[in-house]
């Protein structure tokens, strides 16, 4: 015989409405009561009927999360694991589950977003797509569908959607300033993807620091590269082929910086004696590489948590002031490479 909410309530000595609130993750229920009810649910092997609850409440408590680029590359990068950890933890605190979907092209992005907005499964969505060009999202989702973005959106959307980001321009400026303070004057930048806001902002911060220091800009020391685009070694190999001497190298991502140190070592270039090297994102490997990598910690977990908070406020209709954005502070982590 199927166990019901009434059976759980009787066994836990609470009301059926209390059991329903525990299942829904209501903040009105104390932790002690919630633990007691869930213990009884486990003992009685009770599993809530999610579909039935959704039909009754006209809500699913599911948030869609749209991952960028090729999914296999995304899941190889610690930044996205930390980002998803923050999203998952905060969603759970808010009583929501998440549904992941990947998109390898702009057309796929539009299709996935259309599914999120019109499929009846997700109540809102978090996007991780931050380009300088404006995707035509408006044509595929209703204006009232709650959205939040991780990363500053294109200018056409930055005042029309909830978003959270690091101050990547300031982070690039501070990192380049650190190189300048170390006496570096010929600083390269590798990994610029002009259509990706995050790499463009880091590059602009680097340019700003060089300009304020009165140093001439040499475009030959800038190497474009697809963000998470495959073999990062080719960026530094291309830089070396141009033949312009450099004494510093800033990469848009830690893996590009670690690849740079590998390429330089094979060419007999010492880090940091000959060339200082640094990156962004503070991936776990950066601390254990030799030499340990100087980097910028962007606090990916906090970015994910804040994205859910912004979306949750819209879902609960507690924030009627319109779209808002949050900037999460970054931290310069100085190690032996620079």
From TrEMBL:
Pfam families: LacI, Peripla_BP_3
Family annotation (SMART domains): HTH_LACI
Keywords annotated in UniProt: DNA-binding, Transcription, Transcription regulation
InterPro entries for the chain: HTH_LacI, LacI/GalR-like_sensor, Lambda_DNA-bd_dom_sf, Peripla_BP_I
Entry GO MF terms: DNA-binding transcription factor activity; transcription cis-regulatory region binding
SUPFAM superfamilies, A to Z: lambda repressor-like DNA-binding domains, Periplasmic binding protein-like I
Record domain HTH lacI-type: where: 3-57
PROSITE patterns tied to this protein: HTH_LACI_1 (PS00356), HTH_LACI_2 (PS50932)
Record protein name field: Transcriptional regulator, LacI family
Gene3D superfamilies, A to Z: 3.40.50.2300, lambda repressor-like DNA-binding domains
TM segment ranges: none
CDD domains, per the entry: HTH_LacI, PBP1_MalR-like
